Amino acid sequence: MANQPTDVAIVGGGMVGGALALGLAQHGFTVTVIEQVPLPAFDPASNPDVRVSALSAASVSLLRGLGVWEAVLDMRAHPWRRLETWEWETAHVAFDAAELKLPLLGYMVENNVLQLALWQALEAHPQVTLHVPASLKTLERHPQHSVLHLDNGETLTAKLVVGADGGNSRVRQMAGIGIHAWRYQQSCMLISVRCEEEPGDSTWQQFTPSGPRAFLPLYGEWASLVWYDTPARIRQLQSMSMPQLQQEIERHFPARVGRVTPVAAGAFPLTRRHALQYMQPGLALVGDAAHTIHPLAGQGVNLGYRDVDALLDVLASARSHGEAWADKPVLKRYQMRRMADNLIMQSGMDLFYAGFSNELGPFRVLRNLGLMAAQRSGVLKRQALKYALGL
Q1: How far apart are CA 240 and CA 157, in angstroms?
Q2: Measured between alpha carbons, how far apart are the two ends of the chain, in Å?
Q3: Which end of the chain is more exposed for a tag (fewer CB within 10 A), N or C?
Q4: What is the mean pLDDT of the chain?
């Protein structure tokens, strides 16, 4: 096939890669997106996707700026206004939108709904070329460009290659970029459930000796339960029928979950990764390709959208000033803006994970005293919430 030139080739068209592609196209770049899995059309009668993201207000603002948020709302999204967390009933911490004078803290959105809204916009944009289904076979690096060979026989030439292809990024591996990584001694199960009553607009998380239990309200009568536990226990739960899983939910979730009926479930191991660098000349990493985080606070996709926002700003500004926007000095600005922020958030989640995984009596007392202090901290609590929301 003929070699197809493009300004930017983005490997991975998921929630983060799709948002970056659309933003770059709207800034006048020609963009090619390579994605392995085609998306089915939206069916409003379908059950919710097991994979759900808690989008922060800042992420919603980015998507609104890209012009896709109304398409998300036309499908399915659910606002959340309150977050509660506790271990002891006497040590609740609650974060409320009203504390920041906001109408809401964010939205719960199914991953496939978000990705589909982005792809509909990409398909309609004249600056975007989509290769789906397709995957990257080989990557040749040259001083002023890269050549990408795809498994469908296509060949692309790009000034900038962006890896948005997840935690096991092939772009990162082909570029020889190393990572700091380890696997947590926990796995996570996501369970789509029907509720007897509407789930409301509050999301909550209870810490238990074996791991947190969380509740994410969705649209209508639907909600998502998040169950963290040892890998062996999660494998055991995966082997159960839905009636058996319902019995386990009744035994191990707090009573406030109410009567729920599980419909679908999926599980995954928890791994922390951080790339040693986010860029090389003519190459950048975003989202999970650059960093993965313990999902305790639901920050994964929100950090990815902070990456998108920063890279869009850096590239568009450099191009408007006539700079060589794919070169190292420009891309290093992106790395400097994002690497420290992502590391701080990763480290904060690691502290929570370590602090609430220790069952020694003194540690339990100290962490619950800490939660009670956090609830009463006023300004500090509000600042922590604003940081987590990207405000």
Answers
A1: 49
A2: 47
A3: N
A4: 88
Quick check: 81 and 201 in contact, CB under 8 A? Answer: yes
Distance CA(134)–CA(120), nearest Å, equals 18
Q: How far apart are CA 96 and CA 80, in angstroms?
A: 9
pLDDT tens digits, 23-42 = 999 999 999 999 999 888 89
Angle at 228 (CA atoms; ends 225, 232), nearest 5 degrees: 125
Q: According to the model, what pLDDT value does residue 366 have? A: 43
| Cα distances (angstroms) measured from residue 383 to each of 97, 112, 374, 386, 389 | 13, 32, 11, 5, 10
